[in-house]
Amino acid sequence: MRRIFLMFLTALVAVSDVRHVSAFTLIGPLAPWQTTTIGYATPADIGGPMNISEAYRWSVPRIYYAFDESFLNYFGQQAVVEVEKAIAMMNALPPMSQIDINKYPRYSQRVNFQAQALGLFDVRSVTLSRLLEMIGLTDPTRYVFTLRLRDTTIPMTTNYLTIMRNFDPDTWRPSPYINGQLWTWTTIFDNQNGVPGSFPVTQPVDPLLFAEPVATFAGGGVTTLPHFETGSYYTGLTRDDVGGLYYIYQPLNRVTESAPTNSFRSSGFFFSSGGGGAGSPFGAPGGQTGTGSPFGPSQFALTNVVNTNGVSTTNIITVAVNTNIIDQAVRGGIDKITFVRANYDSLVGALPNPIIDVFTDTVVTNGVRVQQQLTRVLTQPDIVFVAQDLAAPAFSDSLYARNNSWVNNSAINGAGIAGDGPGQMIAPSFMRYNKVGPAFINTFPGGDLSQAGASPVAWWGSFDGSTNAPVLYPTKFSIQQLERLVLGGQ
Prior knowledge:
This protein is an alpha+beta fold. It has 2 domains: 363 residues, no CATH class; 54 residues, no CATH class. 16% of the residues lie in helices and 28% in strands. The chain contains 7 helices and 30 strands. A hairpin with a 7-residue loop joins strand 11 and strand 12. The relative contact order is 0.19.
């Protein structure tokens, strides 16, 4: 049986062209067949792997983000700086139409041994990995080989149908390679040791090679080698990460999409301040104050809500979508996504002034390439970074929580037949960091219930390859205090 598998794997490599030794995995909403029974929909999952041509992506060039009060109060400004370092790495990417994925390394993971001993996860690195997930990529080491079906219709027999959800950015073919490293599966885990679900246990053919992409750190799967662990950090994106983004967002990747949610066609400049207000309360993209508004009188109105004391308190935006907009049409990838920090009132959890985002939308309609200027008005950021107590029964899986919002466009991409994708990612998205603080796990029966018998739970920090000591969160907590806790008070 092993010989047959190796022959199959060899033939598969030959078909997929051995010159291409990288691949990526797409993420989208869980398909109906992606159930817990065959290894999907675990507590850590927000989606599942998509087939080629089923990518989910953002269709706007700017994604606005903000930090709410809970994040600022618990983590402080230092963590904001670290999150924005991850965002800067994403913003530094050139347009996908100009990118050379061969300029990026096959491995960017490093280890800070002091942080490893203290059980720290790096805020910047985890954020970088989650940003990739929020714009379309997931863990290729988990889904390079993955189950499509577990069949028990034949008595006393279980058949497993294994598929590939890892794709080469040059050929778009299924690939068993991840950043130049050949992968296989060693067995199929099947409802063992009280753990429900079945899935292939994947691992690299050469376990001494380390070439996992940043998108790997997604949780939920089982491989022989550990994924990103405490003390690990990333120096940047890898070739496979960039190759995946290239596939999703290149302008030549054309599918039928609707215009971005709540967008409408811009025409002329007009201000309607309502209630006698002077000037415009809106900021232009990037947080700057606009000198004009891209709204026509029939498209935009601002109403002041007056309370019982006669004091104007709230601005309400009324937007009528322009009927001249080209809505459903063939669109290519947006080419370049930029993350922009929003001027956010974290105390009340809202933008003090709505954001006017004006951008050029390129579509192909009736065989003709057309550009239209669209505008969207944001009263909330696209992504909000939050601190929250995430203690749960599966505590080790609660380092962070996040969500994606999706629109499935499969029905308008293929004779109206509904499928798993392609689709669009839409706001809002939330990235929640656990703020429970130092925590320890005792287990009964079979375990010592004293502090000495407790296992510390991973905690947040910031570190790199320098000789600087790791930063702990909240920043008022010292390394000496954490060392005493980790060492059981010694």
